[in-house]
């Protein structure tokens, strides 16, 4: 029964999102590439897991220079993935199970094969010329020396016109000119096309890069290169909030959808400008502070791969919990299609793989915000260690290999060690459905090699084992949904500097929860607040636990304890 005058709670605050990387999820026709009909085949699996929203990485027509993040037609389905009829069927099947579907909005850039850019490049007098960012060079050199995210310059010279176009990523991903109102209207029309079909939301790729500083100032020099860091001039640019408020006003406010923006480089305070409850922009954002911890942004980026410390992780996550509480909404994640596997980065992917994968699930899902589970995370899938750079497909990885070898003098062994730890293909190897041929992903040859550990880590075995990572995710999702304190309560970090224990309290007027995660491969002792000593253990990734003030913790143990209510 609904309480009269009860505040409206947006559905996405209670949702669990599952990210699907379509190319690697399930192949249905034997060509070695995952597709939309393969996703349809696995919907019941996702329903059993207990998730609510499926987010698909780009499914639009693309030459696949960056695996679909280079779009050549926003209103067509990538032929390898199927047809529009397949998509319409997928959407119907998703909705028939009470699930929702979210697509990836990639509008900072297009493919250079998009008809807009083909015309823009072919004819400087065309109205499409101003759909992109073209500039004359300076003294025979590019307009700036900004470094691309995929190595090299962000500027590519067009020999025919002698001008340069901007691409923050691959040279085949020219940036759209959001200063042009016609571009914005084109994007709005495209969004309505999909929303009118019944799509339930958007994950917005690199959304805080849309507005560039109009003067294109030079960036700070990057040591060891002749390039500069242009990020201060295109992250959170001068008109970004104007653009997003216009998008919300013209499009999003007319549909009951969820939105999450990919916003590298934002702080909690800056994030509140994007997702503040009264801002009229987005519902939530993805920040990157915890996954970028210690990265050498000035030189070798993530490839420096410094060791992580738990206090640093705790400080970041706690700052977002407290910084947005009551102001905006958090998104919660450990990994995605651009990050290494969570259990390999933040856990222990060998003898304590199962325990640490469960710990990561518990610690994440009891924080405030909307959780995102990346495909295979619910199985505890791990990073892959291919023997040669020739086995990798990711453009960022292949460009980094050249940069680290040619500009920094790294040998192959050192480069591959970094790729094994941080490369994006770690998350893109095919989903493990069974211990059979090709892990049940395809009857053909997979587009990228499988992780060889699939006979031991796969969905079929996990569903059959009540003690698996999969069952822990399912049970934790159900428990989270039964406890309003997880959605609404305050967050208090305990023992911020403790080197191995991540503990916090969630509290509302009715419930106090203590979450304890022991990030260590050795037993430990942790003193808990006295009110929880006679509490109720709601979740535990080990079979039993005797509560005491000096809590005896086993390797990678995670518990959720509810304090007894006072009589």
Write the layout of secondary structure elements.
Blueprint: E1 17-20, H1 36-41, H2 43-49, E2 53-56, E3 60-61, E4 73-77, H3 84-96, E5 100-105, H4 115-122, E6 134-135, E7 155-157, E8 164-166, H5 181-197, E9 201-204, E10 220-221, E11 228-229, H6 240-250, E12 258-262, H7 268-275, E13 284-286, H8 310-324, E14 331-332, H9 342-345, H10 353-365, E15 370-374, H11 395-406, H12 412-422, H13 459-464, H14 469-481, H15 484-488, E16 490-494, E17 501-507, E18 512-518, E19 524-527, E20 536-540, E21 550-553, E22 558-562
Helix pairs in contact: 7-8, 10-14, 11-12
Give a summary of the structure in a few sentences.
The chain is 26% helix and 16% strand. With 567 residues, the protein is α/β, with parallel strands linked by helices. The strands form six sheets. It has an eight-stranded parallel β-sheet, with helices on one face. The protein has a five-stranded antiparallel β-sheet with strand order 16-17-18-22-20.
The residue fraction in helices comes out at 25-40%
Strand percentage: 15-25%
E-strand count: 22
Based on Cα principal axes, name the global outline. Answer: globular
What is the alpha-carbon Rg in Å? 24 Å
User: How many DSSP H or I helices?
Assistant: 15
Task: Report what the structure shows.
By secondary structure, this protein is of the alpha/beta class. It is built from 15 helices and 22 strands. An eight-stranded parallel sheet has the order 13-12-9-5-2-1-15-14, with helices on one face. It has a five-stranded antiparallel sheet with strand order 16-17-18-22-20. It has helices at 36-41, 43-49, 84-96, 115-122, 181-197, 240-250, 268-275, 310-324, 342-345, 353-365, 395-406, 412-422, 459-464, 469-481, 484-488, and strands at 17-20, 53-56, 60-61, 73-77, 100-105, 134-135, 155-157, 164-166, 201-204, 220-221, 228-229, 258-262, 284-286, 331-332, 370-374, 490-494, 501-507, 512-518, 524-527, 536-540, 550-553, 558-562. The model has no long low-confidence stretch (mean pLDDT 95). Strand 12 (258-262), helix 7 (268-275) and strand 13 (284-286) form a beta-alpha-beta unit. Helix 7 packs parallel to helix 8, helix 10 (353-365) packs parallel to helix 14 and helix 11 runs antiparallel to helix 12. The radius of gyration is 24 Å and the shape is globular.
């Amino acid at each position: 029964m609904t309480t009269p005058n009860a505040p409206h709670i947006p559905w996405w605050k209670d949702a669990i999102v599952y990210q699907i990387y379509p190319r690697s999820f399930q192949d249905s026709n034997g060509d070695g590439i995952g597709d939309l009909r393969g996703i349809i085949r696995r919907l019941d699996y996702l329903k059993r897991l207990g998730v609510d929203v499926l987010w698909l990485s780009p499914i639009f027509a693309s030459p696949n220079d960056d695996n679909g993040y280079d779009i050549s037609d926003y209103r067509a389905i990538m032929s390898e993935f199927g047809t529009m009829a397949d998509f319409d069927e997928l959407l119907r099947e998703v909705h028939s199970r009470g699930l929702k579907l979210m697509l990836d909005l990639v509008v900072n850039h297009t493919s250079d094969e998009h008809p807009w850019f083909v015309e823009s490049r072919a004819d400087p007098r065309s109205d499409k010329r101003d759909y992109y960012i073209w500039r004359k060079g300076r003294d025979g050199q590019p307009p700036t020396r900004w470094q691309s995210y995929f190595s090299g310059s962000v500027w590519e010279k067009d020999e025919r016109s002698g001008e340069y176009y901007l691409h923050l990523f691959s040279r085949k991903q020219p940036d759209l000119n959001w200063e042009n109102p016609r571009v914005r209207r084109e994007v709005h029309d495209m969004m309505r096309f999909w929303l009118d079909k019944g799509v339930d939301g958007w994950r917005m790729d690199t959304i805080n890069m849309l507005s560039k500083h109009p003067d294109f100032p030079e960036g700070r020099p990057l040591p060891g290169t002749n390039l500069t860091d242009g990020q201060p001039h295109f992250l959170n640019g001068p008109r970004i909030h104007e653009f997003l408020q216009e998008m919300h006003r013209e499009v999003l406010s007319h549909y009951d959808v969820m939105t999450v923006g990919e916003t590298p480089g934002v702080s909690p305070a800056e994030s509140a400008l994007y997702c503040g409850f009264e801002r009229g922009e987005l519902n939530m954002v993805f920040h990157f502070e915890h996954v970028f911890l210690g990265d050498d942004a000035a030189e070798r980026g993530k490839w420096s791969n410094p060791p992580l410390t738990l206090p640093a992780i705790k400080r970041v996550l706690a700052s977002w919990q407290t910084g947005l509480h009551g102001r905006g909404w958090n998104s919660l994640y450990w990994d995605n299609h651009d990050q290494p596997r969570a259990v390999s980065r933040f856990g222990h992917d060998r003898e304590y793989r199962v325990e640490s994968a469960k710990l990561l699930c518990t610690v994440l899902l009891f924080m405030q915000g909307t959780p995102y589970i990346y495909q295979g995370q619910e199985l505890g899938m791990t990073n892959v260690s291919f023997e040669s750079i020739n086995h990798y497909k990711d453009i960022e990885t292949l460009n980094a290999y050249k940069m680290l070898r040619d500009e920094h003098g790294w040998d192959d062994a050192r480069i591959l060690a970094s790729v094994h730890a941080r490369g994006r293909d770690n998350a893109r190897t095919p989903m493990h459905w069974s211990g059979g041929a090709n892990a049940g992903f395809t009857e053909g040859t997979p587009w990228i090699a499988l992780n060889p550990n699939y006979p031991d880590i796969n969905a079929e075995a996990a569903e059959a084992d009540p003690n698996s990572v999969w069952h822990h995710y399912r049970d934790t999702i159900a428990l989270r949904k039964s406890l309003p304190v997880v959605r609404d309560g305050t967050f208090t970090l305990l023992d911020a500097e403790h080197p191995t224990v991540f503990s916090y309290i969630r509290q509302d007027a009715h419930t106090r929860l203590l979450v304890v995660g022991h990030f260590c491969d050795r037993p430990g002792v942790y003193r808990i607040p006295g009110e929880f000593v006679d509490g109720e253990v709601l979740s535990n990734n080990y079979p039993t636990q005797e509560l005491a003030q000096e809590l005896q913790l086993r390797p990678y143990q995670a518990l959720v304890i509810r304090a007894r209510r006072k009589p």
